[in-house]
Predict the structure.
Amino acid sequence: MLKGNVPILASAFFENGDLDLDSIERLMKFLLSQKIDGIALFGNASEGYALTASEKVAIINMVKRTVGDLPVVAAAGGASANVAIEDINRMKELGSDVAMVNPPSVIKPGPDAVYDFFRDVCANTDIDIMVQDAPMMTGVNIPVPTLAKICKDFDRVKYVKAEQPPTTLKISQLAAVLDGSAVQFGGLNAGYLFEELERGVIGTMPACEFPEVINAILNAYFAGDKATAREHFYKYLPFMRYGVQPGIGVSIHKEVLHRAGIFTTNHVRSPGKMIDQTTRDEMFAMLDELPLAVLGQK
């Protein structure tokens, strides 16, 4: 079963906007050196919305060559069940172990239509499903009773990724009614990670530039040392918060990877935005006080 630290793999581009697969491979090797528990592709922090179908194939092929038996989660879906089914099945054929699926968002479905969407997806795919509950991104709120019914009625749904802020409230509400039918992961760049752990999540899916920080929190918590887990979480919370700023979160992650020499450039594909110099200076001043393995700090 998927659990632990499953970071979202960032995508790299040259200044002309072309995919920089070598940089992504360097990042993948760094993450493996940090003993992550899985890898997630094509999420928001991956700029999955800005990748072409052929670029996704190139990335997942490289990842599968690199990761060995490490679980691979791929975001997949679409504006209708038909589109989502095709995309999910493509990710399965390419080697994904779990499909992370949002409800349709072009035409906003109500609770009954969300249920029907996942019913159709589960009936026509052969891969474990993670329901991504991210209303800030999709504009679609999935009520707790609907989420619980989806998890209970469809065996293929194994996971829920909680990203409705504050994540803690919905995690607790859902945990009270799931009856073991699915398990929960935290999201939102681990900004509520300690509280999420207290409420029963079995892992988290943050951005990818601070894996050793997440590992330290998770390892301490699951070893029963809540005080150390809490201390480490509070220490790095300002940086985690920095990476979820609307519109520039992707740029935040890339600036660190570029400064580390892993990414050749800090290029963000439109409509994403680059951070300004003041924000850049603020962030790296913060990181002077918060060591990150990727920057070679001790």
Q: What stands out?
A: The CA atoms of residues 13 and 284 lie 22 Å apart.
